[in-house]
Amino acid sequence: MSNTLNQTNSKTESVQKTLLTRLGLPALESSEGRTWTSRLRDNVPFIAITLIILMFWIISGERFMSLRNWTFIAQQTPVLLLLAFAQLLVVTTGSIDISVGSNLGFSAYMSALGMIWFGTMGFMVGIVAAILVGIFNGIIFSFFKISSFVTTLAMLIIVRAVLVIVSDGRSIYVTDQPMSNSNITSIEAEWLLELGQFPNILYFCIAVTILLWVVYEKTVFGQQLKALGGNEKVLHLAGISVNWFKIQVFAVAGFMVGLASFINLARSGAATVQAGQMQELDSIAAVALGGTVLTGGYGSVLKTVVGALTLTIVANGLTIAGVPPSWSRIARGVLLIAAIAISLNRKQIDVVK
Amino acid sequence: MTDQLKPVLEVKNVSKFFGGVEALKQGSLKLFPGEVLAIVGANGAGKSTLIKIIAGVLNPDQGFVKIRGKNIGQDDHNVSFIRQQGVEVVYQDLAIVPNMSAPYNLFLGRIPRKFGIFVDEKKMLEKTKEVLSELNIETVQNLIRPISEMSGGQQQSIAIGRAIAWGKDIVILDEPTAALGPNETLEVERIIREIRKRGTAIILISHNLDQVFRVSDRLVVVHKGVTSREFLRSEVTLEELVKSITTG
């Protein structure tokens, strides 16, 4: 009786393993014999961006590969990149945050309002607002056990609506000199506009990237992110307060959105009701193009940078090549599907929902 | 010697209802240092409920749990408090975080920190090597790659090693080899003997009666929610055991 039990215990997996060894092949998932497909999969973002740059170089030549165009790309990427960082934190835990676009618009507006109320340091109001939206997301998601997709979808709608109510549909402009026209609301902040220009915007972005890399790779928080994406139940059984941690994750993601909104305000020179619309999808695309699996557990700050760059370069390259905007969007959608298809290890996925 | 006779863990008449269903009617057992106590029983007999009560995952409706003579009150009956008392549970499928390294899994929930927020990687690696050599696990080569790239036996050994790394003296193994092949099962059984030698008290829940006979010192049979029988391994035959599992 117990013998049969013993036999059923042995999984087919080990049978496969011995078969492979007998045939003199490396096991599919052993540490020494990592297959070339898994190595390739690891490097898809780097290969993709290289190919894309080469392609646009061939198509558009100097118009694409000029210093002027690359400066433009360096200016265009940061907002998307910071949003993608927010997304990366959440996606690593196996969740998703589609409220980042609305949150960006809302917190940029709150930054502008804060600067009207309190002067220069008032931009902190926007950062705090973004963190609060994140905390709300985290609380609803973890305590009411509503999936992160639904929670943040609701927040996407609510936060955008709050923005419309608060702003009454009016924009706040950032100017470098006092405005005499009383019909428009404006704040005078030359430093902010300067921050939005190359190369300051790039320096800021690099600083945040390094900071996030340290947090993601070297801190207990970063390790916990990946572990939460790997096996939530074990963390719970190990005595880690998973709910509290999820709220922290969404709060930190909110902080990243706050930084993105601040940079967006600096770059665009205005806080508008439309700011950040559809950007949630771009942020998810950037993360996916960076090879981060949307099922959680793995991720890379560096590859997310590559992902955000890829997305920006594709949009930029298609525009230069004279492709109409709608076709450009279709191309980006196709690219997103292709990137995810290659980066996923389908063998490890049981169920797709 | 008197220490040897005092149970490190005592469970007395615990019961648990889920709604109107009584999952556990009357669970009692004593666990002594340096012994492997096997809990056997049919599916649904109440083994899991009993273990979850001991681990602090569930609160008993009646009865009590004593650890080293100390009564665990209702308010303290939770996972983290029980863990602090030196109890570690290794669950069958839930024991590891597959995408994390062996050191991380060993330090799960207790990652050593530098400056309050950073992971002390050096300390983790050193301690991991120490634990692995203590358990005579020499086959683990790569301590940086995800643990899922190791064999199932090694993964489970790391999960059991977690208990040892923290000086736990009561270890509960819930079907530790249910998902493993024959060789990997033997490896895990070797680890069980290894930690038993250190004076650790071990509760083993297993469907594999061969295994129960190979590694346990005493056996408790759970039948229809009651810990109905208790045997010394040396005094019971497989036939008797099977009979008491099926008929109480």
Throw out a few tags for this protein.
heterodimer; A: 353 residues; mainly alpha; three-stranded mixed sheet; B: 248 residues; alpha/beta; six-stranded mixed sheet; four-stranded antiparallel sheet; 9 helices; 26% strand; globular
Describe this structure in words.
The complex is a heterodimer of chains A (353) and B (248). Chain A is an all-alpha fold. Chain A contains 15 helices and 3 strands. Chain B has 248 residues and is α/β, with parallel strands linked by helices. Chain B has a domain at 1-86 and 167-178 and 203-248: P-loop containing nucleotide triphosphate hydrolases (Rossmann fold), CATH 3.40.50. Chain B has 9 helices and 12 strands. Chain B has helices at residues 2-5, 47-55, 79-84, 102-106, 121-134, 152-165, 182-197, 209-215, 238-247, and strands at residues 9-18, 21-31, 36-40, 62-67, 70-71, 87-90, 113-114, 118-119, 170-174, 201-205, 218-223, 226-232. Classes of the chains: A mainly alpha (353), B alpha/beta (248). Chain A binds chain B through residues 1-3, 5-6, 9-11, 13-14, 29-32, 34, 218-223, 226-227, 229-231, 233-235, 237-240, 297-298, and chain B through 57, 79-80, 83, 89, 91, 94-100, 104, 108-109, 111, 113, 117-119, 141-142, 145, 148-150, 152, 177-185, 207-211, 238, 242.
Average pLDDT level of chain B: 86
Total number of β-strand segments of chain A? Answer: 3
**Quaternary structure of the protein:** heterodimer
Let me know the average pLDDT of chain A: 86
Secondary structure blueprint with pairings:
The complex is a heterodimer of chains A (353) and B (248).
Chain A: H1 2-9, H2 12-22, H3 36-60, H4 67-92, H5 100-118, H6 124-143, H7 148-167, E1 172-175, E2 185-188, H8 190-195, H9 200-218, H10 220-230, H11 232-237, H12 242-268, E3 270-271, H13 279-289, H14 301-320, H15 325-343
Parallel strand pairs in A: 1-2
Antiparallel strand pairs in A: 1-3
Helix pairs in contact in A: 3-14, 4-9, 4-10, 4-12, 4-13, 4-14, 5-6, 5-7, 5-12, 6-7, 6-12, 9-10, 13-14, 13-15, 14-15
Chain B: H1 2-5, E1 9-18, E2 21-31, E3 36-40, H2 47-55, E4 62-67, E5 70-71, H3 79-84, E6 87-90, H4 102-106, E7 113-114, E8 118-119, H5 121-134, H6 152-165, E9 170-174, H7 182-197, E10 201-205, H8 209-215, E11 218-223, E12 226-232, H9 238-247
Parallel strand pairs in B: 3-10, 3-11, 6-9, 9-10
Antiparallel strand pairs in B: 1-2, 1-4, 4-5, 7-8, 11-12
